[in-house]
């Protein structure tokens, strides 16, 4: 299936969903004017991708969201639950990485909260080295 | 591999349990694991310790189930009632109000039980899962939103503090600028006044002469209809009208005897010297001063110097300063002459209306004579010099 790439804007993150490398990225800030419009095509892509993905292929979802609004947090949880369900029901080899810079305490706490809700998928909190 | 669904069955009558269990075991589309209990307390105890997806209970246990459900880990544990005879429960309606999913009546219908169990287990479990998740989401979103709001509040407070700090700084800066401006203005006035005084002192005028000329010029300018800004400009510039005299040698300037023809021509050139000194400046004030220096000896009838300009060819600044300067010079005592009486001056002014002076300015002079004399009184020479 085709990869899904969305370029970063001031209010939406860069999204790179890749069905060949099976490494997926959400990077940037998320406070779109219409959160549903932004995340709907992503959900559709993910559902199709996950249903086709063979159980023995590992796939990794990387989230590095510096700032997000409340409706985005709901959209992100929808994605996490979807991934969690595929691990729970079909035993797919998926993992989620929540990346944040050490000083960003809020991001760390949000990551911890999201992790609590995951029943099956590994939800890793990853401290990111500042590259600049 | 799918997890099997755990179903607890509760009835005092073992044969009912067996009958229902047989039906459930025969369902092949889903896998069910059955735990059966004859005693309600055992059943509740079991539900407290193990995850149970569905409870099937005889209607006789309804009250206890409702009482105990709150204390279970899964407060929303779904249950289906079954009855051994239709008499035991008045109507199915009540059952649903109480929270039961359904009521299986005796005799049990295998197809009905299979269909309903599958549906409840699938749909209902999903619904409950979705419901729980939505609750969690709501909870998280609210907390995230709360946190962001309090962060925002902190930022706002900080911004407010910063704004106040900035306002204070700006206020301070403004005061400083105002003080500096005042100093610059004062310095400028002093420099101009001193420059004028230098010119006048060389021709034996008193310091108050330039002050009076300044005030007369201002008054006439305002009455003539110039703007406040122009009048103020002229007031500051008119004291410099004789600045060109610094270029005239003392021996001529202070000569007690009459000037020779050449000396007279040189004397007259103080107007051009003054203009040359000031004309290069781009400052409006000094430009004004250059005009005043250049044109204060021009006459309305064209017989003045240095250029013999006529009527309103002469700049209004020059015309005003001319009348102000002459009025003050005539009235002042000099080493070599006594000041004129007022009447004599007024007679001359009437004669020179439209000759030496702009007729309109002469009219204004007489119309405002009271104010002009008040200025003269205010800046009276003390005579000692
Ligand atoms: Fe003069
Ligand atoms: Fe003068």
Quick structural overview:
The complex is a heterodimer of chains A (about 130) and B (about 375). Chain A is an alpha/beta fold and about 130 residues long.
Main features:
heterodimer, A: 132 residues, alpha/beta, 6-stranded mixed β-sheet, 39% helix, globular, B: 385 residues, Rossmann fold, Hypothetical protein af1432, 2 domains, 5 strands, rod-shaped, binds fe (ii) ion
CATH class of the largest domain in chain B: Mainly Alpha
The beta-strand count of chain B equals: 5
Which two protein chains have the largest interface (Cβ within 8 Å of the partner's Cβ), and how many residues from each?
A: A-B, 17 and 14 residues
Structurally, the number of domains of chain B stands at: 2
The helix/strand class of chain B is alpha/beta
Shape of chain B: rod-shaped
Question: End-to-end span of chain A in angstroms?
Answer: 35 Å
Helix content of chain A: 25-40%
Characterization of the model:
The complex is a heterodimer of chains A (132) and B (385). Chain A has 132 residues and is an alpha/beta fold. Chain A has one domain (40-132). Chain A contains three helices and six strands; from the N terminus they run βββαβαβαβ. Chain A has helices at residues 35-52, 70-90, 105-117, and strands at residues 4-6, 14-17, 23-30, 59-68, 94-101, 123-128. In chain A, strands 1-2-3-4-5-6 form a six-stranded mixed β-sheet, covered by helices on one side. Chain A is globular. Chain B is an alpha/beta fold. Chain B has two domains: 5-108, Response regulator (Rossmann fold), CATH 3.40.50; 130-378, Hypothetical protein af1432 (Orthogonal Bundle), CATH 1.10.3210. Helix content of chain B is 62%, strand content 6%. A five-stranded parallel β-sheet of chain B has the order 2-1-3-4-5. The termini of chain B are far apart. One fe (ii) ion binds next to helix 12 of chain B.
């Amino acid at each position: 299936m085709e990869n899904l790439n969305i370029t970063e804007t001031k209010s939406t993150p860069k999204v790179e969903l890749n069905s060949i490398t099976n490494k997926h990225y959400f990077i940037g800030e998320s406070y779109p004017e219409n959160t549903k419009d932004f995340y709907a095509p992503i959900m559709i892509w993910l559902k199709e991708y996950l249903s086709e993905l063979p159980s023995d292929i590992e796939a990794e979802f990387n989230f590095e969201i510096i700032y997000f609004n409340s409706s985005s947090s709901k959209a992100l949880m929808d994605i996490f639950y979807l991934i969690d369900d595929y691990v729970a029901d079909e035993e797919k080899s998926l993992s989620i990485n929540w990346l944040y810079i050490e000083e960003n305490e809020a991001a760390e706490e949000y990551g911890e909260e999201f992790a609590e809700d995951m029943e099956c998928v590994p939800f890793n909190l990853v401290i990111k080295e500042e590259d600049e | 591999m799918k997890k099997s669904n755990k179903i607890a069955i509760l009835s005092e009558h073992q044969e009912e349990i067996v009958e229902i269990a047989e039906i459930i075991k025969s369902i092949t589309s889903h896998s069910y694991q059955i735990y059966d209990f004859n005693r309600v307390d055992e059943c509740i105890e079991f539900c407290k310790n193990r995850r149970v997806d569905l409870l099937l209970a005889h209607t006789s246990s309804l009250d206890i189930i409702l009482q105990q459900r709150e204390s279970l880990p899964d407060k929303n544990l779904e249950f289906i009632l079954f009855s051994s005879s239709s008499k035991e429960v008045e109507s199915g309606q009540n059952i649903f109000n109480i929270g039961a999913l359904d009521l299986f009546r005796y005799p049990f219908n295998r197809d009905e039980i299979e269909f309903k169990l599958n549906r409840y287990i699938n749909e209902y479990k999903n619904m409950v899962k979705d419901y729980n998740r939505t609750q969690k989401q709501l909870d998280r979103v609210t907390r995230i939103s709360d946190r962001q709001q309090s962060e925002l509040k902190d930022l706002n407070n900080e911004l407010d503090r910063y704004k106040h700090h900035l306002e204070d700084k700006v206020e301070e800066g403004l005061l400083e600028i105002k003080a500096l401006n005042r100093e610059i203005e004062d310095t400028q006035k002093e420099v101009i006044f001193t420059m004028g005084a230098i010119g006048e002192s060389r021709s034996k005028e008193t310091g108050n002469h330039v002050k009076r000329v300044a005030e007369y010029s201002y008054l006439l300018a305002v009455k003539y209809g110039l703007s406040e800004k122009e009048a103020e400009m002229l007031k500051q510039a008119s004291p410099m009208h004789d600045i060109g005299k610094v270029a005239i040698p003392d021996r001529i300037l202070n000569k007690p005897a009459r000037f020779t023809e050449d000396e007279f021509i040189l004397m007259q050139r103080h107007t051009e010297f003054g203009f040359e000194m000031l004309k290069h400046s781009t400052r409006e004030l000094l430009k004004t001063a250059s005009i005043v220096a250049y044109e204060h000896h021009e006459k309305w009838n064209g017989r003045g110097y240095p250029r013999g300009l006529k009527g309103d060819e002469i700049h209004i600044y020059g015309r005003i300063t001319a009348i102000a300067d002459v009025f003050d010079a005539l009235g002042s005592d000099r080493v070599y002459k006594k000041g004129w009486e007022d009447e004599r001056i007024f007679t001359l002014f009437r004669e020179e209306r439209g000759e030496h002076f702009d007729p309109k300015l002469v009219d204004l002079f007489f119309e405002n004579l009271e104010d002009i004399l008040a200025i003269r009184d205010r800046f009276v020479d003390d005579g000692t010099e």
